[in-house]
Amino acid sequence: MNTNEIRNIYCIGRNYRLHALELGNEVPDEPLVFTKPSHAIVPMNGNVIELPGTAGEVHFELEIVLRIGRDYEPGMDADTCIDGMTLGLDLTLRDVQSKLKAKGQPWLAAKGFKGSAPLGDWLSYPGEAALAEKEFVLVRNGAEAQRGNAGDMLFSVSELVKYVGERYGLGVGDIIYTGTPAGVAALKEDDRLLALWADNVIGSCSVKLV
Ligand code: ZN
What we know:
This protein is an alpha+beta fold.
């Protein structure tokens, strides 16, 4: 999929228990949904990604990203609606986010900056059951930083598609970042990141803080 064809970027916050807890957040009782502008998207294809270096910590959050291939209609099951998947980073200005949260303000400045949504290569969607049979891993500078499994999501892919589709709408070209497992931390200059799905690298980049 050409990144120009991506429309709405929905993201789910706190969808893995251990990640919610590591940031001192409560585990939500319904999906926490936010969006990013499409200008946040950058590829993860061995490139250098330039990120804000003067606004405090930039945290990595590796997530399964789903691509909508058919317009959602009430009752449509997720496996019909979704046609692709990849791994992506929901990059977050964590210090900025903490200030926004304290003031009760929206997260755009923390989550929606240019380059905040790197995406790996698209794969065909295996279906919800098969999705949970494999793990996704973020490797930073040769060491494992995050490991996740869709089976650990607090709200399953089916629940997310229904929730987002009914409230906000889901159409062809929309994507959903489904939340990050535990292990988030601040990026450093020249970090090299690999996103692995079932031991295959489907995205890689290095970091430049400007
Ligand atoms: Zn996230």
